[in-house]
Design goal:
Layout: H1 4-57, H2 61-86, H3 90-110, H4 112-127, E1 135-138, E2 141-148, E3 152-156, E4 162-166, H5 167-172, E5 175-177, E6 183-192, H6 198-210, E7 222-228, E8 233-242, H7 248-265, H8 279-294
Antiparallel strand pairs: 1-2, 1-5, 2-3, 3-4, 6-8, 7-8
């Protein structure tokens, strides 16, 4: 038969020894908990100090946020290891460190793209080839930088959509930053008649573009003729704008309107192709014919 009293006595003795051991271990447990709480408090405090201090000297929010997170994690990790040491679990600390290394190696292999994006994002945050508000071209996309994150770069393409490009692709491929100096050269093509005086055309075009309020006055306006075609002489105007005050599309639009107005005023003919059907001209001619018949 089962001796239930003996079994109960053994269980009671075991629980008694555990309780005595636990009570004797209470001071170490209290100190370990206190160490973790202090580490938690210090991690938040030091993180805020880092964010506040670096925020005053650097506008790189991604880098500042990264350093704040690293400080927080380091302080909490140190507090955890100290608490385990107070509890006498030194071998456990060694095992945790070894296990963390193995886990980090496995995660690195399993998430190579994620790791590469994180490292690339960190390098971008440090080197700062672009920053929030810049207009850039990279990986075949052009737009204004909305956010520089560690994993990706977010662009506004100016068409109502946002584009998120992995940091690895941005870091490894060329970046054209149109906002680094603020100045940008625009190119405007035009064509005039063979009967026009090209020196006069050049003077009118130069004066017209230079008079635009958004054309940079410290940069030259250059007008060149580049080719003879079947029906006109092709020319190009190079001029500079500060794209922090005006975007290229409206600047080109205003330049085109001003150039056409100036050419019309000076009697410079911007030629149609010979096979172009000018409906407006035909309507005007038809109106004149009707007026002649009515007379």
């Amino acid at each position: 038969m089962i001796d239930f009293p003996a079994i109960a006595h053994l269980i009671f003795q075991k629980l008694t020894r555990w309780s005595h051991t636990f009570l004797g271990f209470l001071p170490e447990i209290a100190i370990a908990v206190l160490v973790i709480l202090v580490a938690r408090f210090l991690s938040g405090l030091l993180s805020r100090v880092v964010l506040s201090g670096l925020g005053r000297v650097s506008h790189n929010t991604s880098l500042v946020g990264l350093l704040g997170t690293v400080v927080r994690v380091l302080v909490i990790s140190v507090g955890l290891f100290v608490a385990l040491g107070v509890l006498g679990l030194d071998k456990t600390v060694t095992s945790l460190l070894a296990g963390a290394g193995v886990i980090a190696l496995a995660v690195g292999f399993a998430f190579q793209d994620l790791t590469a994006n994180f490292i690339s994002g960190t390098m971008i945050a440090i080197a700062r080839p672009l920053q929030t508000g810049d207009t850039v071209e990279t990986n075949g996309f052009t737009g204004r930088v909305l956010e520089v994150k560690l994993r990706s770069i977010v662009l506004d393409n100016g068409k109502g959509q946002t584009i998120e490009i992995p940091s690895k692709d941005v870091f490894q491929k060329p970046i054209t930053n149109f906002s680094r100096t603020g100045a940008r050269r625009l190119e405007l093509a035009f064509g005039v008649s063979y009967l026009d005086d090209l020196d006069h055309v050049q003077q009118v075009a130069t004066a017209t573009i230079r008079a635009l309020p958004f054309a940079l006055k410290d940069q030259p306006v250059q007008v060149y003729f580049r080719s003879f075609t079947l029906d006109n002489v092709q020319g190009t105007i190079w001029f500079w704008i500060d794209q922090r005050t005006i975007a290229p599309p409206p600047a080109l639009s205003e330049a085109m309107k001003a150039l056409k107005t100036a050419f019309n005023r000076e009697g410079i003919l911007m030629m149609f192709r010979p096979d172009t059907f000018d409906l407006k001209k035909r309507v005007e001619e038809a109106g004149e014919s009707l007026e002649t018949l009515n007379r």
